[in-house]
Amino acid sequence: MPLILGPSDVKKATKMRQMIDVIENGIREQAAGNVSMPPRQNLATSNGFFRVMPAVMRAGGKMGIKIFNGSVEHGVRYIILIYDEKGGELLCMMDAAYLTGARTGATTGIATRHQARKNAKTVGIIGSGLEARTNFAAVCSVREIESARVFSPTPANRERFAQEMGNQLDIPVHPSETPQAAVANSDIVVVATNTTGHSDTIAYYGSWMSKGQHINSIGATGGHLREIDPEAFFRADRILMDTIGGVKEESGDSFAAIHAGAWDDRKIIELPQVLGGLSARKTDEQITLFKSVGSAVQDVMAGFAVYEQAQAQGLGLQINDFLEHKIF
pLDDT (tens digit, 9 = 90+) per residue, 40-97? Predict the structure, then answer.
């Protein structure tokens, strides 16, 4: 009997530490060659896009698909369907707007776990929206963070973020008046901005990088969007990506880096490689960068984690199986 989870159910069933570990297990499965995941399908609609992201996790016994559609101007709707891979039964359908932000944060947590310095204590955050919150929470789940600073262009937003996230995580968070002040000499940087395609959306500049710093950049997931400048790619000693093909083909930051000659394949590695044993950081002095656009493995594993939590908490609406099992 399939379970239907609405937005409030998904939020209640999202546990960041669990999600980090579950997604990491899925990427390890991917590294071992036990995942089927085609490139995401991006189709144009009359007023935006229709995007489809399937994955089959053979060893883990689960499979699923995320579908989302809309536009920046008119909004986007997200849904994830989770299936039992062995029997083919539909297990769950869930709203995935909040979940997409949570899984993005969890994946940043995985990257930070393997790429940031072990003794990292401070975080600089640029952005104050949902993904800034989920990414910051994930960073604090994998490192013993002692303090943080946040910048958002709207003073009220950065002050609200500082108060609410400080209370949530029991860490002092201070609002900063400029993005450079927020990230200056921070051990870890989170750049999670609402990129909209304007020419002034560079949120973090490579000239701000400091020795040993680790930067997570999760915005600019469309070719016309920007979040970090080409110098960030040039100055980083080691660049980790969730999917090299996805970042290279979809991110406006990557397009700009390639055009500027700042893209260097020799220092770019992929998250499954790291979970397969490749080092993401060689010395404490290196500057490291994580750039992501998301993947179906992340979505399916995050969806399954939420499904399990929802079952344990008695959340959602259980319905009769409405799919005919056609036998040939």
Answer: 899 999 999 999 999 999 999 999 999 999 987 889 999 999 999 999 999 999 999 9
Tell me the residue length of the chain: 328
Q: How many CB atoms lie within 10 A of CB 167?
A: 10
Phi, psi of 251 (to 5 degrees): -90, 130
Q: What is the CATH number of domain 3-100+296-318?
A: 3.30.1780.10
Beta carbons within 8 Å of 268's beta carbon, 6+ residues apart: 239, 240, 241, 244
- Which part of the chain has CATH 3.30.1780.10? 3-100+296-318
CB 140, CB 120: distance < 8 Å: no
- DSSP state letters, 235-281: H-SEEEES-HHHHHHH-HHHHHHHHTT---GGGEEEHHHHHTT--S-
How crowded is residue 318: how many other Cβ atoms within 10 Å of its Cβ?
Answer: 11
CA distance 97 to 7: 8
Helix (H, G, I), strand (E, B) or coil at 163: helix
Q: Are 52 and 41 in contact (CB under 8 A)?
A: yes
CATH code of the domain made up of 111-291? 3.40.50.720
